[in-house]
Structure formats: C-alpha cells, structure tokens
Design goal:
The complex is a heterodimer.
Chain A: E1 3-5, E2 10-14, E3 19-21, E4 24-26, E5 32-39, E6 46-52, E7 59-61, E8 64-69, E9 74-79, E10 88-96, E11 104-105, E12 109-114
Parallel strand pairs in A: 2-12
Antiparallel strand pairs in A: 1-4, 3-9, 5-6, 5-10, 7-8, 8-9, 10-11, 10-12
Chain B: E1 4-7, E2 10-13, E3 19-25, E4 31-38, E5 42-51, E6 54-57, E7 65-70, E8 73-78, E9 87-94, E10 106-107, E11 111-115
Parallel strand pairs in B: 2-11
Antiparallel strand pairs in B: 1-3, 3-8, 4-5, 4-9, 5-6, 7-8, 9-10, 9-11
Classes of the chains: A mainly beta, B mainly beta.
Chain lengths: ~120, ~120
Amino acid sequence: AQKVTQAQTEISVVEKEDVTLDCVYETRDTTYYLFWYKQPPSGELVFLIRRNSFDEQNEISGRYSWNFQKSTSSFNFTITASQVVDSAVYFCALSEETSGSRLTFGEGTQLTVNP
Amino acid sequence: DADVTQTPRNRITKTGKRIMLECSQTKGHDRMYWYRQDPGLGLRLIYYSFDVKDINKGEISDGYSVSRQAQAKFSLSLESAIPNQTALYFCATSDLRPGQGWNEQFFGPGTRLTVL
C-alpha cells in the first residue's frame, strides 16, 4: 500500500530564509509518480510539480527546487529566500502505476513566513 | 471560467439530512475524484471514476455515494449526514498523457460542509 509522510506539521521562518519541506513515501511499485501541491489561505489546491520514478533529476523553478532521492524514498521541497506569499499548507502526494492515478496525500506542512 | 467548478461552495445542514455536492469540469478529462480534507489528515479519497460507467470506492467511502451523470459531471451524496462528515470536500480531474503516465490532478475550489 502506498503511504506518504510529512513529518513537519508546522514550520515558521522569517522572510528571506531558506526552508525545506520533507516528504517520505512508501510504495512497492517500481513505477510511481510524486507530486507537490500548495494550498494557500484561500483554500484552493495549486499543482506545483510532478515527478516520475524514473527521473531522479532534481528540478529548479525560480525560488523552488525539488530533491528526489529514491535511495531514501524522499522527495523534498526547498523554497529559497522565502516570501510572505509562500505561507500556505504544502502537500506531497504519491500515485502508483497500479493504483490507476489515485493520489495518496501526506498530512501536509503548514508553512508560515513572517515579515 | 474555472475548469473545475463545485457547487455549493459552502453548506450548513443538520444531522440526518440528505446532501448532494456537485462537480463539473470543462477540461474534457475522463477521470474524476472526490476527496475530503480534515485538519491534520491531508486529503483522503472518497470515490473515483475513470469514465461514466466506471465508479470505484476510495479509502473512506462509507456514508457516501456518487453519480457520474456525464463525462463532465460527478456528484457526491451524503444520504444521511452526520457531524463527523463536517469537512472540506474537493473534486478533481485528471487525464492520461500518452507515454508519460498519470497526469497531475486539477482540483475544484472546494465545498465547505458543516453538519450540525
């Protein structure tokens, strides 16, 4: 069965600090997909990134970067030079090839960036 | 206009009432999902549908039912609402990108349901 753990329930940082959100997953499939979503205070879910299990390249998008390590079953998310607008709940999610695109979400990490 | 819409956006009801939450999408996706979000628990899958004739239970389907009226519409019903069904409900859609596995899911704005 697939499982996603986000051990950090809440993180608080001061603006311009770098912050890393941890995500650890469990799966028996060799083919799977990992996702990060952002949920700002307004409540909607915003897709950030999708990564498949065969692509371990790290990715950078502006101030966001993702570190995928199959050896430790982790898919961590780093925000560089955080801003107040980054304050949100961030969810990591997993979809196994055999699950037919169903997503299993982690519990989420509440990030608060203070001015 | 939003690609995935949900109605109502907010609903307060009483224990024992029947409630229907509706979801419509204009993305042309075959796959649709219903999730509920509770504080500290993330999102959990209630039901999902891969096409109009294919409906499947998720991890927490007890107390819920669904109807896929058309490719674009997927409704969630609470036959007899109870207070622990108070939550934020999301509808989502996805499609399959040929040769690249499962796509990301696109979420509606959510329906906040309170059962008194």
